[in-house]
Amino acid sequence: MRILASEVSEHIGKTISISGWLHKSRKLGGLNFINVRDRSGLTQVLIEDKSEVEKLRGLQVGTVLSIQGEVVKDDRAPGGAELHSPTLEVMEAVTDVPPIEVDKQIDHKPENLDTLFEYRPVNLRNINEQAIFKIRAEINRLIRQFMHDNEFVEMQTPKLLAGATEGGAEVFKLDHFGKEATLAQSPQFYKQIMVGVFERVFEIGQAYRAEPSATTRHMTELTMLDMELGFIDEHDDVLKMTEQLVHSVLVRLYDEQGDLLKKVNAPALKLKADFPRYTVDEIHEMYSKNNSENTIGEKDLSPAEERWICDYAKKKHGCEAVFATNLPIESMKFYHMKNPDDEKTA
Against a cut of 0.85, is the pTM above it? Predict the structure, then answer.
């Protein structure tokens, strides 16, 4: 029976079988060590028998191996144990030198990006690169759990539409069997319609906006979380639900996935159950007072202002999540709610 890397230390003194990819090979003081990667992590294998070492001659990282050996406790090894006296079976040989050294920290400098994108399936075999995707998957799982617990129904809405959701300047247009169609900018209308069916609905899905971008705010193709709930008394009910969602997901993520977060050098979480609130005008004034840029009177917050107010709230309130309220009426969309206490804002 195959044993995963994460389970190896549970079998000290026993002979087991593992299967995975050759992740690293090295010699240390005349001894031969290899690391084998599977879906759960790495297993270290000590190879002393020359006939077994010979099986690896000319083989490169990525070679698929099946190995049988005795589990020996060793605190220096990944997981605190390694395999000794192994018998190796080469299931699939890789002889080409890999374009990326996946056993080392991946360098994301601009001059390396062409190579990283060209060989993306290879560099994702790096343990730290995998962590990004695992964290993302965990966030999705925790969001769905929160939504389920609060009686939201998940849906998947069309991404090929007859027309734009929010104006036509930022949409991708395409031919759809002789008629013009657009890629969805958001599930805005669909989720509002479905409130009349289920009362509470949400979607985690793709959205597309024709905005050239080479930043972390990659609007061309993004993943959105959209939720809608009916029978509210005021817009504050929506803010509170959002607050509870963000707090629940991030606190659980940091509690349950600390090791993954360390791999990507995630900072410590600074979050409270009640998020500070500032109006857009207040943020403009505070930012302009503390920086060389004057944003007073602007319709919306700039990315620099958003980063600044989160850092400010983190230091002042111990909470880096912030609500920006009272959007200037000039930026109001038709689906926004006019502020009954201030006709100039939404």
Answer: yes
